[in-house]
Amino acid sequence: MAHELPPLPYPYDALEPYIDEQTMRLHHDIHHKAYVDGLNNAEAKLAEARKSGDFALVKHWSREAAFHGSGHLLHSIFWPNMIPASQAKPAPEGALAAAIERGFGSFEAFKAQFTAASIAVEGSGWGILAYRPADDSLVILTAEKHQNLTQWGVVPLLVLDVWEHAYYLRYQNRRAEYVKNFFNIINWDDVAARYEKARS
Ligand code: MN
Questions:
Q1: Distance from Cα 154 to the centre of ligand 1, integer Å
Q2: Ligand 1 centroid vs 72 CA: distance in angstroms?
Q3: Are 179 and 170 spatial neighbours (Cβ–Cβ below 8 Å)?
Q4: Domains of the chain, start order
Q5: CA 22 – ligand 1 centroid, Å
Q6: Cα–Cα distance between 103 and 116 in angstroms, integer?
Q7: 66, 81, 94, 166 — which has fewest CB within 10 A?
Q8: pLDDT tens across 40-83, in order?
Q9: Cis amide prior to 84 (ω within 30 degrees)
């Protein structure tokens, strides 16, 4: 069940001169590997907690899983998102090209926004072109701390709003009671339908 570091889909020097071989070796073999190891460790610790019933460190390990899980998922997309320059096309084609024109006006406008958004990310982070299933559209996102946006690529199945506005009138500061009672009103058929849809 452990996560594994996916191999690069090309040699380490394949993206030269735009990304150098040494950077690729460090980035893939050291940095991405650390995310994989960190995710495996966090998931093992969470499994131990479920077994023992001791959830004292659940916040810590949930954050670790989000940080390393997001890093693993995003890097796993990043490597195959690239190709040696000699084989790269100058712009997308087909349905993706049409969706980019619908969403951003033109490929040039998309490129301008993606470029500006990526340059504007403070510190470590990502520029991301994403598909939004809710209205079948494309959006550009930036992530300054990828763990704050949890594990990229996942599909939410069951969500619980724990902002105070969701429970304060009835429960005041007793969030634990609200969370406990949530289990009395979950529509498991809806959750199951989302699970089936996500897998199809
Ligand atoms: Mn990286």
A1: 19
A2: 9
A3: no
A4: 21-78 (1.10.287.990), 85-199 (3.55.40.20)
A5: 14
A6: 17
A7: 94
A8: 999 999 999 999 999 999 999 999 999 999 999 989 999 999 99
A9: no
